[in-house]
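The data are quoted verbatim for reference:
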Amino acid sequence: MKNNFGSRSARAVEAITRLKKLYSEDVSHLGSLSDETPFQILVTTILSARTKDENTEKASEQLFSEYKTPKQIASAPLKEIARLIKPSGFYKNKARHIKKTAKMILEKFGGKVPQTMEELMRLPGVGRKVAGCVLVYAFGIPALPVDVHVFRVAHRIGFAEAKTPEKTEKELEKIIPKEYWIVVNELLVLHGQNVCFARKPDCGRCPLRDLCDYYKNKIKR
């Protein structure tokens, strides 16, 4: 299957354009800030590590029904935090990270979530993906956080070849113009959740077929 988008950068821009059109009706706030506080976004993204989206949602809802602010979580009993976030898995480690992060935000950052990659990554349990999500969704700062959906979709289409999320992020930075970064995570996550499934991707419904290395190789077989 041939296409008119020779470079990976041109293919990436075309893919983003098509996905924005595909999901524009479902996500009217695409590219805008979340209604959650920066601290809630930070905690929710920590909870999302190595768990399903629905489990993350349940755990964050349970936690924020009792404790919402850094001060509240820093003062909460560790066992109570762990109990509330249990659906997210690895809840004991996550509870420790969340409590320590809340304390550090109070003690080192004046009670406010920091707004740089470097400062965010000083917080317990925060790697590049978590930090990138906070920058994008809490502050509207361009970043390319790579979670399981972004990693899968980017590799299937052929936008990245690296073996780790960190190196994949660097590859995407090279081919995606910065003005698109703010929507890339949300678009690829939505596509991974709705079409480009981990098992049996629904290629028949995918508007990116002519751009996709996976589909091109699939139809050859």
